[in-house]
Amino acid sequence: MRPASDPDLLGQLQGSPAALEAFYRGHVDAVSRYAAARCPTPADVAEVVAATFLRVLDSAHQCDETQGSARAWVLGIAALEVAAITRRDARASDPAVGSGRRLRLTDNEVVALERRLDGACVAPAVAAALDTLATPDRELHLLVASDGLTPREAARVLGMRPVEARARLSRARRRLRDVEEARPLSQPAAPLERRA
Questions:
Q1: Quick count: other Cβ atoms within 10 Å of Cβ 130?
Q2: C-alpha to C-alpha distance for 16 and 9, rounded to whole angstroms
Q3: pLDDT digit of tens for each residue in the chain (196 aa)?
Q4: How wide is the angle at C-alpha 31 spanned by C-alphas 155 and 69, nearest 5°?
């Protein structure tokens, strides 16, 4: 018996814990890598992963495979959750607002997520070059290069037309090559700082 496809699993999520588990296991690593590359703390990574799959459960009927893969759809949901955390953290850093409640993790969960964060860190030279890109171009490049989406799927995640995504991706790749070629061989890349 062959494993169920993503469309089959999505159609069964509401009534089948086994379908939910299979879909989760098939996509949790991609969502974790995506979140780890964009969230400042392991708690934020855990929050993005949990919130993403809760939204998947609630909105499985909205996934349209003709518009892109289920993986692209799930990463689109994860992108919305990362944006929500970014907004929340910006509000929490405002002294007038105060701090919000944080998810509590066990020591083992923190260690496991920190390992994932460490594994998601890219080489310092690449990180420095990525910082030279505009935010939409950086996100597009990361979705294609790190998260394995096609340019069309990444365009869908970011809400842009595929032709615009291809043009932006081409410019981003050219910019990254130019930055790397401009760096003298004797000059080491700036160290990558972990976000606190």
A1: 18
A2: 9
A3: 456 777 777 777 777 788 878 888 888 999 998 888 888 888 888 999 999 988 888 887 777 777 778 888 888 889 889 888 888 877 776 655 444 555 667 778 777 776 666 545 545 666 777 788 888 888 888 888 888 888 998 888 888 999 999 999 998 888 888 776 765 544 444 444 444 4
A4: 45
CB 126 within 8 Å of CB 8: no
Q: Which two tokens stand for residue 113?
A: 């997520």
122-196 is classed CATH 1.10.10.10: yes
User: In this structure, are residues 50 and 81 in contact, taking their beta carbons and an 8 Å threshold?
Assistant: no
Q: What global pTM score does this model have?
A: 0.57
Which of 65, 181, 196 shows the shortest CA–CA distance to 125? 181
- Chain-centroid distance of CA 70 in Å reads 14
Q: Which amino acid is at 123?
A: A
Question: Residue ranges of the domains in the chain?
Answer: 1-120, 122-196
Coil vs helix vs strand at 99:
coil
CA angle 81, 87, 89 (to 5 degrees): 105
CATH of domain 1-120: 1.10.1740.10
Q: Residue 99 class from Cβ within 10 Å (0-12 exposed, 13-18 middle, 19+ buried)?
A: exposed
